[in-house]
Amino acid sequence: MDDANTNAVYVLLRVACLHDFVVGVVALRVIRFIVGVGCDFVIGVSLLELLVGVWWSCTFLAGFMLALSRQC
């Protein structure tokens, strides 16, 4: 793959990860609304775990795909 295609794949992976992140945040907001305001600490910790988990997994996946495409 040439650099333009590689960059396009990388951007698409980032957009897909951003979509997953937004869906996760919305889901946590809905859970918080249903449960009530007494669980702010638990939801905050869960949100932090979600942020870190999604960011690192997406960064790894994008890096792996980029490295794989350069091998071909």
Description of the molecule:
With 72 residues, this protein is mainly α. The protein has one domain (3-71). The protein is built from 2 helices and no strands. The protein has helices spanning 3-35, 40-71. α1 runs antiparallel to α2. The longest helix is centred in the first third of the chain and has 33 residues, at 3-35. The protein is elongated, with a radius of gyration of 16 Å. The termini are close together. 0% of the residues are buried. The model has no long low-confidence stretch (mean pLDDT 67).
What order do the helices and strands come in, and which of them pair?
Elements: H1 3-35, H2 40-71
Percentage of residues in helical conformation = over 70%
What is the H/E string?
A: HH
- How many domains? The number is 1
Strand pairing plus helix content: what structural class? mainly alpha
Mean pLDDT value: 67
The count of β-strands is: 0
Low-confidence segments, given as residue ranges, are none
Q: Biggest β-sheet: count, sense, barrel?
A: none
Shape verdict = elongated
Strand fraction equals under 5%
- N-end to C-end Cα span: 7 Å
Rg measurement, Å: 16 Å
Quickly count the helices.
2
* Oligomeric form: single chain
Features:
72 residues; mainly alpha; 2 helices; 0% strand; elongated
Give a brief description:
By secondary structure, the chain is mainly alpha-helical.
